[in-house]
Queue: 4 jobs
Job 1
Amino acid sequence: MVAVAPQQRHDRVPLGIAFMLAATVAFALSTAISKWQIARFSFAEVLFFRTVGSLFICALLILPRTGLRVFHTRRLGDHLGRNLTQAVAQSLIVIALGLMPLAGAVAINFSAPLFATLFAALWLKERVGAARGAALAVGFCGVLLIAAPGADSFRLGALCALANAVMFGSVTAAVRGMSATESAETLTMYQMVLLTLVFAAALPVAGVVAPAGSDLALLLVNGLFNGLGQYAWTRALALAPPAAVGPFYYFTLVWALLLGFLVWGDVPSPSLLAGSIVVVGSGLFLLWHERGRQRAARRGRE
């Protein structure tokens, strides 16, 4: 049975890649809809309806298999802390979408894995090393390439996007620590429930505009796309190793560039393209490096 398991995992890699590509399409569409809506509604209202739709689709996909036992946890405080941080991070990226081109916000968000490496070193006591440190420094230079040019609103938007990347990096590190005891389904359902409650509480402060029929439908469709993206992303990581499916997540940037051009007429600047290549390249290098470390660790145990 031990000898068959690696082949079984290998056979599931193409399906994992398919799920990851589906996740990138869903996330890009959700992000584009959020950018469209932030011109009409407050960030809290956009995110509230998005999480309601996401909660519906995730509950539909997860609860029939798990029932209410999915909410059994001994780490409620950790779930609360993680999702409060994630609520702030999501608020920042939606605000950034209203201030800068779609592809620029998405590209800066791809620096989150670099910050996750940093937070994993601080909180989980993982060794950074020269390679990880170099990837972090080079990736941050790519962020500066994306954020530096343009008007003040672009720079303010870039700062919000960067703050989101930093906070999302901390959330990623927290999830890595929690995954030792919490299933992907438990993490996902607590995320959707708690984020819905947080954004509902923020509505009176941020403001509410009663959406018309078409706007209400689009607000909920945004949540459906985000929920499908979350589910497909989780399935991809369950089916195949992160090193096999992770690189395909960067296709989100391709769809963001395309949607930005088709919907808003955004033509990517040379600095945006160069910075995106640097950020994505740094992330891919980290994936390759981590895969090598895992292989070396397995050989050492044999």
Note: Residues 270-301 form the longest helix (32 residues).
Job 2
Amino acid sequence: MSTQQSRSAAKVMLAPAVVLLMAWMLVPLSMTLYFSFKKYLPLRGGDLGWVGFDNYTRFVSSSSFWPAIGTTLLIVGGVLFITVTLGILFSLLLNQPFWGQGIVRIMFIAPFFVMPTVSGLVWKNMFMDPVNGFFAHLSRAFGSEPIQWLSQESILSLTIILSWQWLPFATLILLTAIQSLDSEQIEAAEMDGARLLGRFWFIIIPHLARAITIVILIQTIFLLAIFAEIFVTTAGAFGTKTLTYLIFQRVLESQNVGLGSAGGVYAIILANIIAIFLMRIVGKNLSD
């Protein structure tokens, strides 16, 4: 009886937080859906009435839509590949005992707490500037012409910036998973004559499968909405216009809230399709 009363009391106490959370999510979503069916131009006539699915048709038939989808997936895929690959390597290194291990771990995680805008500006001005950037000085030191990173290698530049931001997160999750690995398994495999590569491929990687899928899931959800880094570095030029940035242009630059809202709905659909696909992978790994 007391257990039932405790559960009821817990539900009552949690109810206000649940209601606020649902309102926090549903109100913006409802407004986005509402405006996506209207022609709303704040500075050019305001509310011009209902247009049905015209905004959706115009947005998806735009010449920038599919390139933006491709750019988004290309950047997300590149960042995931780099962060997962290097995350496994760095987590193995940080798991080894050495002097100052705690300080090194804290310093390694620090980039994750840098604001995206600050991160983009630092990389743009201090590293990738073709005149005074670090990479420019390094290129001249080796007798070659500096690369115009943000114009010639724009996708690679954004991938590097985002990977620098998200690598600490991936490393932290994977390091936690490695620390839960039973050392007796490694020792037994070593005694049986298993080589280093074999121990890594058949013991460590399967053990990290769950952590890797969780890293991919969380990073993908956030990376699909990247905006600040693009805004302060390339401003969507040189083929770096993602779906999020395209929505920004439609809403603020074109002052077409209805068209931008339709793009927002497409972004939600894309994020949910990818999230459901990844959740199935995560669920499969967690059930194994």
Note: The longest strand covers residues 46-50.
Job 3
Amino acid sequence: MSSAIRVVLTDFTRIEGVTSAVIVSKDGFVIDMVHSGEASFDPDSLAAMITTLYGASLRLGEELNLGELDMVTLEYKNNYILVEDVGEALVAILADKRAILGRIRYELKKQKDRIRSVL
């Protein structure tokens, strides 16, 4: 994939606690990914699940009249996953508990236009 996308994703993995940054097409395929953590997972499965999760979150919000979906945030015992819509694709950030959620959320919002421009 383009080096510009790789630079954006690498910037996310420089944030303390961030272990992976992935851009996923809305039809469930990995566009690009940078992984700095030790955990191993199947990127294609991750992409499919993120797309499904995001779609289910959209439908839930519509069903309950909650307004426009801003970001999906999952909190596990020792990890976080944040998913942001960037137009043509989704960005997912995987982080461990060392991460500061507010920092990741801020960076996702701040980098949204930059991500769109490199897709």
Note: The CA atoms of residues 17 and 100 lie 8 Å apart.
Job 4
Amino acid sequence: MICLLSLPHRIAQLITIMMCVSAAWFSISCEARNQNTTTTRALDSPVKSPAPRFIPHEVLIKFKNGVSPERIASILKNNRIDVIAEIQRGRLYHVRIGNDRSVESMITQLTSYQEIEYAEPNYRYETQK
């Protein structure tokens, strides 16, 4: 004969056991899913290094208003700079510097001239896909 008082206790035990088994199964399945993700990433092609933020050996130089074309030519020649393009009616220049100089050091030198408003790297901009 089944004792009616112990029936709720047995149901509670059964529910507790089922919850423990479900939690263990869920935990194991999550670990397996994470391991599969890691394995898949390991088989993917190697991660490409990001492209440089600016184009090597290229600088944008903006001269202040009123600087003569002769003075601009003199500054560019003295620093061994080749003009790629002249923008904004002779005030902004897209230039190429020699391989023996870094963009950073050239910018430091150029900004020391009082005739130059600013000099900056030729930054790369990409649209998001």
Note: Residues 87 and 121 are 15 Å apart (CA to CA).
